[in-house]
Amino acid sequence: MKPKILTTLRDYSWSQFGVDALAGVTVALVALPLSIAIAIASGAPPAAGLVTAIVAGFVISALGGSRVQIGGPTGAFIVVVYGIIHDHGYDGLLITTLMAGLILLLAGFLRAGHLIRHVPEAVIEGFTLGIAVVIAVSQLKDFAGMTGPALPAEFLPKLEGLWAMRQSIDPVSVGMGVSAVAAMLILRRLAPRIPWLVLVVVLTSVATALGLAPVETVSARYGALPDTLPMPSLPKMSADLLVALLPSALTIAFLAGIESLLSAIVADRMIGGAHRSNAELIAQGAANIASPLFGGLPATGAIARTATNVNAGGRTPVAGMIHAIVVFLVLLVAAPLAGALVLPALAALLVVTAWTMSEPHRWSDRFRLPKADLALLLGTAAMTVLADLSVAIAVGTMIGLALRLSRGEIEAPSWHTPFRWGGDKRED
C-alpha cells in the first residue's frame, strides 16, 4: 500500500523534473476547461470542478499507487452528482462524497483492490454506455443555446423539458457547437498528440470575445470565478440524511474504484509498469474526503488525462502534482480568462467526451458477444438511462456474477481497456 511517489523519488533527477513539469502543464491545460464543463453538467458551480482538479488531483498523485495517474472530476460522476444535487442540494453532495471517501479508505485498508476486478465487463461497458447517453443529452440545452428552467434529473422528464424549450434554440450556438464537435473529432484523428479539444474551446471563446459569435460564457451565466480556494469546512449533517445518502455514496465509491483502477491499468500498458491497487484506493478515499471539504466534487483517476500525461512524457507522480499546482495558479491569476470560456464549446467538449466513452469502434465486438452477455450489457445501459445508476450497477453485477458461476468461471477475466499499448509489466 506504499504510494508510488516514495518509490520514484529514490532516484529522481532534475532532468526528470523538467519532463514531468512539461507534462504537468500540458495536462493542466486539458483539465481546466474539462473540469469546468463537468461541474456545469453536474449542476454544480463551475469553480467546483477547478477545486476538485486542484485538491483531489494533488492528493491522488501524492498518495496513489500509479506512477502517472491523473485524478480529478470525470464524466462518469455527472449522472449521479446531478441527481444528488437535484434531490438533496449541494450540501447533500458534499456529505455523499465524504462518505464515499471513507468507504474507499476502508476498501483500501481491507485490501479490496483486486475484488473490483470481479465486476463483469459487460456491466462496466453497459453503465459506461448509459452514462455517455445521459451526458450527451444533458448537454443539448447549452449546445443549442436554449433558455429555460433547470432540467430534471430523470432522463425522460429531461427530454420533455428540452422539447418544451425548443423554441428558444439559438442558431449561432448550434452552429458553434456542431463546428466544435466536428473540429475536435476530425483534428484529433489527424494529429492525435495535439490537444485539439482544448484549442477548439479556446478558439471559439476568442471568437466570442472578439464579437464574432455572440454566445453565452461561463461568467455571463454563473458570475465571476473565484481567484482562490475556499477555506475548508464541514457541511451540516444529520442521521436521517446520512442514511438517505448512503446508496449514492456507495455508487460514487464504486465508480471511483472502477474508473481509477481502469485508468491505472491503461497507464500500466502505456509505460510497462504495475500499479498498486490498494494504495490507489486509499488515495481515492483521501481525495474524496479532501475535495468536499473545499467544496469540490467527487474525483477519480481520469483515463484521458492520464494518457495525455504519459504521451507528454510524465513518468512519476510529480507530473500529476504539478498539474494540480498549475490549475491553482490559473485560478489565482487568470480566473477571468477561464470565465470567458463559451458554453456551447464546453458542451461540445462533453459531447465528444461522451462519444469517446461509448467506444463506438467496439460495436462489432459487442455484437459478437454471447447473447446473454450482450443482453446484460444493453440491459445495464438501459437501466442506467431510464432507471438509476445504483440499480443498474447492483442488478447488473448480480446477474453477471450468476452468469459467470453458471459457466463455471471462477477467475475474473481481464478487463478491456480503451487503449492498447504494449510493454512488459514491472512491479516497483
Concise summary:
With 428 residues, this protein is mainly α. 68% of the residues lie in helices and 1% in strands.
Tertiary shape: globular
* Secondary-structure class: mainly alpha
Q: Low-confidence runs (pLDDT<50, min 5 residues)?
A: 420-428
**Domains, number:** 1
Q: What can be said about the biggest beta sheet?
A: 2 strands, antiparallel
- The helical percent reads 55-70%
For the secondary structure, the number of strands is 2
Number of helices: 19
Q: What features would you describe in this structure?
A:
This is SulP family inorganic anion transporter. It holds the Pfam family Sulfate_transp. By secondary structure, the chain is mainly α. It has one domain (15-223, 235-406). It contains 19 helices and 2 strands. The protein has helices spanning 4-8, 14-41, 46-63, 78-109, 121-138, 140-143, 155-164, 171-190, 196-209, 218-222, 239-271, 277-293, 303-311, 317-333, 335-339, 343-358, 363-367, 371-386, 389-406, and strands at residues 71-72, 300-301. The chain has a two-stranded antiparallel sheet. It is globular. The model is unreliable at 420-428 (pLDDT under 50).
